[in-house]
Amino acid sequence: KKEKNAIILAHNYQPKEIQEDADFVGDSLELCIKASKIDEADMIIFCGVNFMAETAAIISPDKKVLLPDNRANCQMADMISLEELKAAKKEHPDSEVVLYVNSRAETKSEATIVCTSANAGKIVSSLKGDDFIFAPDKNLGIYSAKASGKKAIIVPEDGHCYVHTMFKPEDIKQARIDYPNAKIDVHPECNDDVRQLADYVESTGGMVRLAKDPEIKELVVGTEIDLATRLKRENPDKEFYPLRRDAFCLTMKLITLEKIRDALKEEKYEVIVDEEIAKKARVGIQRMLDLSQ
Predict the structure, then answer these.
(1) b/e for 4-13, b at 16 or more Cβ within 10 A?
(2) 91: which residues sit within 8 A by CB, 6+ positions away?
(3) Using omega within 30 degrees of 0 as the cis cutoff, is the peptide bond preceding 188 cis?
(4) Using one digit for the tens of pLDDT, what is the confidence trace for 184-204?
(5) CA atoms of 71 and 105, how far apart (whole Å)
């Protein structure tokens, strides 16, 4: 890493050993902001999934961005196609397009503005119109509409994260029995009936901040299981319980220390975004960053 003048960025869903070796660990918004401000490094090793590495490549065009395993994709990001988004824009020409960062570069090129789970409500509230096109996560679209008082036109109708839709109301009810002194915090990508039963609804970055609250001693975490790993590592005197112990993002787990080593040695797998697509996508990403910093 020192020889290549590289920096290692890791998402909160990476396992413990990668979190410990990374230069920076964060949620999608924090990683976007970090990638946009990296001046000292020539290379970014992105420990996450493909759309995250693409976003880093778009906002840091002078850096070489490497994804240690090129199979690390996000199923949700592939649930919205460029053609579907263009069709929605044609059907609703006066509506601005809010695209969740969990999307591919080519669809970002059609966005008015990009959002993350940490800032979706704020982003939607900043729009001028009374409605907005939102893709691809239906749950975050519904959540953003409620937070802003605006109407969401969600494309596709059933875009979702398979990890977060795994959580059910029964899981919340059981957690109340198993951990009577704990607060329950769930991700906005969870279904609405789950969000309504929780004490808090937060992005993973929000969960990290909440965990530091001196009033919080025990927290049930309704997101990918390795977020609880980070919370315990940073707050060893507190208790954190995964809402479900089978809540794994399988493609996040494709990244390993050995693959990070090989990426550094062999400079693979480089993430390259078409220049014209990157130029268009950068507009919506930069609008988000301007509202978030």
Answers:
(1) bebbbbbbbb
(2) none
(3) no
(4) 999 999 999 999 999 999 999
(5) 16
